Amino acid sequence: MASFATEDESVADLFAQPDFWKSSMLLDSPAPLAEDFFDLSDTSRKGPIVSDTLSLPDTGYFRLPPDLNTESRPEGTADGEVVNIDHKSLRSPRPESDVDPWIFHQDAFPEAVNFKTWDSFDVPEAPLNPQIFITEAGTDAYDSYLASESNPCGIQPHTPHETLDPNAYSACMLAMALGRDSVLFSWNSEKKTFQSSLPLSKAPGYSAESLSAMLPLCTLCGQAYRRLRSFIDKTYSSSASPPRVALANALDSLLLVVQDELGRRGLMTISILQLQALVRPTYRLLSYYYRLVIKIKRSTNDADLLSLIYNEAQSAEMSEPVLRDTMGQILRIVSTPWAEFVEEWIGLKPEEGTRIDKSGSGKGFVRVENHMWIDDQGFELEEPDYVLDSDNMPGFVPDDVAQVIFETGKNIRFLQESHHQHPMASINAKNSTTVPRLEWQYDWESIMRVEEKALEYQRAVLDLLQKTRDASESNAHLRAHSFVDQDDDGQLQVFGKNEQAIQQRLLASIANLERPIETRETWNRLSDVLRQNLFDHQHQGESTVADFSPHWSLLPLLSFGPIVFTQARLVNGECLRLLFSEHGLREHLAVQRAFQLLGNGMFSSRLRNALFNPDMETTERRTGMSRSGVTMGLRLSSRENWPPASSELRLALMGMLAESYQQESGAAGNGLPGDLSFAIRDLSTEEMERCMDQGSLEALDFLRMSYKPPQALAPVITKASLIKYDRVFKLMLRVLRMLFVVDQLFRDIVLQASHWANLLDVCVRFRVEAHHFVTNIGRYFFDMGIDQPWRRFQAWLDKIEKGLQDSGLDQSAAIVSPKRLGEEHEQTLDNIAQALLLRKKQQPVLKLLEEIFTQILRFAKQVRSHAPSDHDSEEIKNMYKAFREKVEIFITVCRGMGEKAGSRNYGEADGRSPESALAMLVLMLDMSNYYTKR
To answer: What is the pTM for the complete model shown?
Structure first.
């Protein structure tokens, strides 16, 4: 251990035990170098190191204790006088005095008075400058200045004002800003404002004018607080809708945060001016939401409420960060009931409370209405169905998203009603997957997470569906071999479940119970936003430059679109798969093509013979003759009475549909799809009168096809499509009759040639032109009018059915729903109707065609006459002339329509349209310009 040594001392022994009680040699004989540095005597000081001009004032925190103050030392000791120090006294273990010179005795000396300045009010470390303003001289000086009658500022004296404690006055103002009563300010329920208990009062250091300018701010803030609280209480006490209750909850959370933050910060203020700085942003926030509440009171339904809040949130995007962020959170909170209903409707979560069905009135944007329709017997029937109520859909939801949401919900109900065991129909089957929730997203990162969740959910559901299909196939295989491989090993079974299945169910239930409870952090996020941005001005300044985020017009689509479209793609795919596989959609459509559109050749041939062939056995009752019931027909052109009886129709058409269907499909004994049969059309009085004439074109308009689609196929084969099928069948039955008439004309003219020698050339020309015209019209109707659109529809169905066999992970693929399938079906029928001149705007052309057919029927009837006369010959000439003129007009009109359609459809993908096909009809009718030459 080393020790200090002087020049005269020798180096100490390193291993010697030191004597700790021995005094230091430096005290006994100080070295010359350390004489001044280690001297403890006050009398040996020569004076301050620096001059007095550079010395700091001996006040404040770093002032010397009184015992060490050099200025208080006696001046009797000279500078050069050496004072001897008693080193023994220094070595004494107890000091001579109990006073420690290094302890600062604050009570001994009063603290120096410092002037308060505006600079030190904001920055306490600011240097002290000479006081310039009178307010910096203290409250007493300022109050004295205000009390003087002759002040240079002209401020009125405040002698009548009662001076109050500033802390108490500030606390009363804070309570009023929070909407509370206090000693100085109380709430007047009649005037809906705060009133002062003391008419004239002031606080030290403030003028009455300045306080009067501060009071309105706190008064208005308290009024806004009270009015918001009143709105919240009224909402809770009334039977308000869920979005309004959610808004009340959000405002309640906002008021709680304001009460907490403003109350805590307001109690820490040391000046009324600081309180004013805290109340000002609070008032801006509360007044903004009070104006929002006033606008909300005018809304009539929940959709208007959500649309209004969305518009306000969009408007607040470029305002203060606190308004922008809080409006985003409030929009998220208020939209939660609507988003939860959408999740229940599209099958993302189980329905709570009363389920939506067709027996009720609906809920939200889903309304149940009765649709009127006429059945085969002509009776008006009502059928309830779901209808999209656009007035109750929020305005921020795009129309295509709203339609997808509605159709997905309808398809979910179809699965729940017709296939309740399907995994998509049961929400419990999807508990093992992470079901995403619908929620507003405001930044690109959150939107990307939503898309990832939607894709993950789609993969999980597709895996579940594939496992279900594999399990159903294996169960079907086991059921097929159950009678062969059955053995009873005495296993435990409960309700058809073996021990292993019961164990798996229990484990799955336990795993479900062990999952953490889902928590909604929306309220906490709103509180966090308010606490961070309401009074944090530095944070507000940094957040004024908003991060790059999507425009508000895109937020609904980006927030809800990925999940909605994913669920729609899954649900619609399963519905279409069931329609094709289990409900026989293609089979029902083939029946319409074969019979309603006369696509079955065997059926068309038999129907033609049964209705028009005069060689068939008649179905009329004749005296002394019995009807055999085999190969019988109505013989339209060879009978005397018309219309036929119902028994005659049954005899003529009996077995025709079933035999034709069995021959085409190969099915035997299964019946016709949709109970297809012949029926009588419901006609008006005028139409019935035209049917009474067997020679008229409308003689067979009473005959129709009766078909009732299954309930599962109602979205595809709708009532409107059945009406279109009926119109096409009615026209094609007339064309079928005309084809038979022009074919029969050749035989009739040959048989009557001896009687029509002088008119043979006119009759032959009429017969040839009529045959040419009707044959080409029939070829155009059957081939181009019906077959081509139907082939395109079949190709589209093949593409959809093939797409159902893919994995289904293509997010860019178009969503095809049963309704979309029905729309494509009706569009095909519209194209057919347009090609067949059945559209409303084509009625004049169709009427012209019917007049041409009527002229041919009159000529055929005249040819069958056995006693012609000169009058008949002249009449036939007039018929031919009228026929020729009408055909020329018909071709001219069709040529114009075809040219107009061709110029309008120039550059299209397929280059074909129902109207442009009329150009082909013109070419078939007048290839050599026979009817245009004169």
So the answer is: 0.73
